[in-house]
Design goal:
The structure is a single chain. Helix content is 71%, strand content 0%. By secondary structure, the protein is mainly alpha-helical. The termini are far apart.
């Protein structure tokens, strides 16, 4: 073999010979995500693996090939990761980890904040009807609209359950991107809908919550929600199991594993596999642009819904509830609660809203799972 043939063969094996303009666009998007995660600190635990999966699949598409697409019948590495998403294993494990990390006491101490978590789901239903108007079928519209809950695992779960796996990549990337961009998207909406006087409202200290209440809460919620909407059991059940590990006090090893080692392993697998669904061929199309726009609409309406109900509750309580905590009703835990605290502190640095905001924040996680279960019930999916 002469030198020219050798060089030609080597060149044909590089990625350069197969890259399209679309691949370069997606590679640039991956770089932007990495910049936002590393330089700006926007949810790096999510954006770094998603961006790197996006980078890999657009350089080396084989990494997401199914066994049927390869000559030796062995699929690409990230394809196997992605099967754990499609089987809803990883989303359910994420919920267990969230439950093991999160203190539900603020919600137990102030159950009225359940209403704010419910109001923040308004964005989901608003986006559903807009998606129908844009030409999506009912199941696709439902899968897209759940982005409004700012809950990536639930978005993946519902898209799979409704058989909309073709839209899973754009839906998951939009959901996780908006989760990461909570500190940018929410504050302008919160400021626009509240007055300076409302943002300065100081809320009374939450009452102490007993250990018995903390133990009974996940058990009661599981029984009630799963009896009404059995299809939510993989999400609500795992969320409450993780929290029961935390509050029971007798399985410290399980709680620490679920909240730390297992959670971080699952985030790596889920993030890289979600990012790897964004090949240029699958991602750069009109439907993807619609999904990204619908996700933003859903998220904005969800934030507004929580804040507006917070204002109503503020009036009814005689000014005892700060409406800013309503924005935490979207289920990006605990980022949305931190944003409530940050916006409140801009007006009054000595005002502490974080624990109050955790009530609607936890309620939002449950509310988004219930919304997903409602859509599954409507379409007869178990």
């Amino acid at each position: 073999m002469d030198l020219g043939s050798t060089f030609s063969n080597l060149l044909s094996q590089t990625a350069f010979s197969n890259l399209t303009v679309g691949n370069f666009i997606m590679i640039m998007v991956a770089f932007i995500f990495l910049y936002l995660a590393i330089k700006k600190g926007f949810e790096p635990l999510l954006l770094i693996p998603i961006a790197f999966g996006m980078l890999l699949v657009n350089i080396y598409p084989d990494i997401m090939y199914s066994p049927e697409e390869t000559p030796n019948g062995v699929g690409g590495m990230l394809w196997y990761f992605f099967q754990l998403d499609e089987w809803t294993i990883l989303p359910s494990l994420i919920f267990m980890g969230v439950g093991a990390q999160t203190d539900f006491a603020p919600l137990i101490a102030n159950p009225k904040t359940f209403l704010m978590g419910a109001a923040a789901q308004f964005g989901i239903y608003a986006a559903y009807f807009v998606a129908i108007l844009l030409g999506f079928n009912g199941k696709a519209a439902a899968a897209i609209s759940i982005i409004g809950g700012a809950d990536g695992p639930t978005s993946i779960f519902l898209a799979n359950k409704l058989g909309e796996t073709g839209l899973l990549g754009p839906i998951a990337v939009a959901a996780y991107s908006y989760m990461a961009l909570v500190p940018i998207i929410q504050p302008p909406i919160m400021r626009a809908l509240t007055t300076e006087k409302e943002r300065k409202i100081r809320m009374d200290n939450l009452r102490p919550v007993s250990k018995l209440e903390k133990i009974l809460f996940p058990i009661v919620v599981t029984v009630v929600v799963c009896l009404i909407l059995p299809s939510t059991a993989p999400l609500v059940g795992m969320l409450m199991l993780g929290n029961l590990f935390k509050e029971s006090g007798v399985v410290k090893q399980l709680q620490e594993t679920a909240a730390n080692a297992m959670m971080f392993i699952v985030v790596i697998l889920l993030g890289t596999s979600v990012g790897a669904t964004t090949s240029a061929e699958a991602f750069l199309n009109a439907d993807t642009l619609k999904i990204v726009a619908l996700g933003l609409i859903a998220f904005a309406f969800g934030t507004a819904g929580g804040v507006v109900l917070g204002k109503i509750m503020c009036k009814l309580s005689g000014g005892k509830i700060n409406p800013l905590i309503g924005s935490a009703g979207v289920s990006a835990v605990p980022m949305a609660a931190r944003v409530s605290q940050k916006v409140g502190a801009e007006t009054d640095p000595t005002n502490f809203l974080l624990m109050h905001a955790m009530g609607p924040n936890v309620a939002g996680v449950i509310g988004t799972a219930v919304a997903a279960g409602t859509f599954m019930a409507v379409f007869g999916v178990k």
